[in-house]
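Hi R.,

As promised, here are both runs. First protein below:
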Amino acid sequence: MKKYSLLLVCLTFTLLAMSQKPVITYEKTAHDFGKVNEEDGKVTYVFDFKNAGASPLVVSRVQASCGCTTPTWTKEPIEPGKKGSITVTYNPSGRPGPFTKTITVYSNASEEQTLLTIKGEVIPKAGGADNNAFPINMGGVGVKMKIIQMNNVEKGKVQTRVLEIQNISNAPVRPTIENSPPYITVVVAPEVLKPNEIGKATFTFNSKASTQWGPISDDIFLNINGQKKISEENKLTVVANVVEDFSKMTLEQKRKAPILETPARIVNLGVVKAGTKRTTKFQLNNKGQSTLEVRRVINNNKELFVHPVKLSVVGGKAGNLMVDLNSKTLTEGDYKKSITVQTNDPDNSFILLTLVWKVQK
């Protein structure tokens, strides 16, 4: 009887704590700009929100899905019943056509992450080089897009994409690529483009030369006539996802494949004193015969440090991923953060591990 009474008390306190948290509510979470004239410049929309909870609301961070979208927001604590705002500005320059952008709002509310969306269609400038098939001007060279999508690349294989470019200046130009990593090669042909001449930049992604698995994003830069320039204006981004093709495994390989089992994919650290550090672990058991390989740990949380980022566990054994939490920069409140682990288990190639804790003074 005492056991159930204690459980009831704990549940009551948990529900009470949840009811006292701030609650963020929006008047609207999506906005359609409609048709936007590129020549009119940046467009802005204000998302208004309210703290419908019982304690002060703090918006700690607002992150846009790309550099063309800039958010600003109310940074001071918002008392219960009061309002705040998030101002989102979109730059249509050099981005003709439909667009959809997301803005992630991080706060101490009961819903820690909320999503806002803007969309519309950019109408390019009338006349001039920006109105043709090469709308993005990079110092006299026009390109069709700034992101080169390699999509999924099977480990050990090579993926190629071709980006057409055009000399939109009145003089010959020599385009070159700078800051390219060893596993990405780019060949521009012809080497010198005459005015209005169209050429090709051939991007080759060699996954065998890359030490990384999973999602990879690399910024490289298109320079003209030997000029060394690294800026947003001349930046190209190569995006790939290095994966393993399990469909080619034989029946024998599948029978002997590693089998990942995790006793707990969610670890609750309880109360963490502000400004302190805490270490915990996630146990990874290999119930299969072949060695389990942790290919990569994807961690986008600045307050968490995961080690090792690569791990081998032989069949029948267990290994640990250690996670260090540093609460130095964290304000009081409840936190829930996740990391993604990529493995060679055909049935668990990607798993999500989650940490939960509460920061108090």
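And here is the second one, sequence first, then its structure tokens:
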Amino acid sequence: MPLGAFIADKELMMQLADNPVLGHITTFGGHPVCCAAGLAAMHALLDEAMTDNVTQKGDLFKSLLQHQQIKAIRHIGLLMAVEFDSFETNKKVIDAVIETGALTDWFLFASNCLRICPPLTISEDEIRKACTIIIDVLNKI
């Protein structure tokens, strides 16, 4: 269910009231069914403690993604950017990873970075499998 929100201080919200007109509203904000789905998702996140192991899972990714072609790994939670020397290298990695059946892409603002954004429910075995795929690809290119 699509759901969006925009949060800003009063000064910015007032500016967006006129520049552009109603620039703060969204197509995906406020529909009752979408809001109910969003509330249910928030309760699931909290009740099922889905965020409790995010740090450990991120650390596992970082520990397994060790390769001379990886320049850096940056992340917030499980949203990760694996940096390579160029878009060309990154594109080769992405194409080869997708051929294995795993999904990834680059960031629009950092085309030399592989995007990893798994669900919070990813298991340690799935993390190990994903990292093995990426490292195997790097060893072949």
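A quick note on the second one: The radius of gyration is 19 Å. Let me know what you think.

Best,
J.
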